[in-house]
Design brief:
By secondary structure, this protein is α/β, with parallel strands linked by helices. The protein has four helices and eight strands; from the N terminus they run ββββαββαβαβα. The chain is globular and about 40 Å long.
C-alpha cells in the first residue's frame, strides 16, 4: 500500500504533486542510527518507485561523517534526482563543489532557495517524462 506521508520524531516525508519532500525537526543532530532511519523512511514512502526528492537540511544542527558515509553508500535507492535545501550560501558552495568532484549517479544539486530547488526538480521531471 502506498502512503502519502511518514514521520518519526526527527524527520517527516510527504509526497506532493509527484515530488517527495522531507523536513527535519529544529536542531536535530544526525548520527549513523538516525541516518539509517532517514533512509528507511524514505524507502518506505517511495514504495519501490523512483522519486524526485527535495531534501530540506535547514533545521539540521550537524551530520556526522559516519552518517554521511552511510547515506552515500546506502541512501540512493529509489531516487531520480535530489535537490538539497540549506540555509547558507557557503554550505551550498561547499556541497556543490563536492558533488562536482564526486559525480553522483543521478542529478543532485544544493540550493538556498526552495522555489529554485523545486523548479529544478520539476524541470528534470518534465524532461524525464518526454
Amino acid at each position: 500500500m502506498k502512503v502519502n506521508s511518514v514521520r518519526n520524531y526527527y524527520i517527516e516525508f510527504w509526497l506532493e504533486n509527484g515530488i517527495l519532500f522531507s523536513r527535519f525537526q529544529e536542531g536535530v543532530e544526525i548520527d549513523i542510527e538516525r541516518m539509517k532511519g532517514v533512509v528507511s523512511l524514505r524507502e518506505e514512502i517511495s514504495g519501490g518507485e523512483n522519486q524526485y526528492w527535495l531534501y530540506d537540511l535547514g533545521n539540521v544542527k550537524y551530520i556526522t561523517k559516519e552518517a554521511r558515509d552511510y547515506a552515500d553508500k546506502y541512501g540512493q535507492n529509489y531516487l531520480k534526482s535530489v535537490a538539497v535545501l540549506v540555509n547558507s550560501h557557503i554550505t551550498k558552495y561547499i556541497y556543490n563543489t563536492y558533488i562536482k568532484l564526486k559525480k553522483p549517479i543521478m542529478p543532485f544539486l544544493v540550493f538556498t532557495n526552495k522555489e529554485k530547488a523545486l523548479e529544478w526538480l520539476l524541470e528534470i521531471k518534465e524532461k524525464d517524462m518526454k
